[in-house]
Design goal:
mainly beta; 112 residues; binds FE2/S2 (inorganic) cluster; Rieske Iron-sulfur Protein
């Protein structure tokens, strides 16, 4: 099937992102994003931590809905990308997401 809107790319099957997990995927554009499932809400953030460029998907999706980087413990708001705990100072890019027919599509970066 085709993507729900232009600018969206097929990223994964919904079943591959169970509740409470994160999944690293590479888009057709070459960008790596980290899909997450927070209590049934599917979202996508950059898989590159703005602190020192390590993979965000190695981190943890916390109970409060923030995402913690595994490397130096920075935390980010999953919806806005805002820094919630240092050492990061720059926000984590957040992407538009659409789910259709059991597939997850990732669109453009949201304006920060
Ligand atoms: S690379 Fe993520 S906190 Fe340092």
């Amino acid at each position: 099937m085709s993507a729900p809107q232009s600018g969206f790319h097929l990223a994964a099957a919904l079943k591959d992102v169970p509740d409470g997990t994160m999944l690293s995927v590479q888009l057709e554009t070459g960008e790596r994003v980290c899909l997450y499932n927070f209590r049934g809400e599917i979202g996508a953030v950059s898989d590159t931590c703005p602190h020192q460029d390590f993979p965000m998907c190695d981190g943890t999706l916390l109970e409060d809905g923030t995402i913690e980087c595994a490397w130096h413990g920075a935390r980010f708001d999953r919806l806005t990308g805002d820094v919630r705990r240092h050492p990061a100072t720059d926000p984590l890019p957040v992407y538009e997401v659409a789910v259709a027919d059991g597939q997850v599509f990732v669109g453009p970066r949201r304006a920060s």
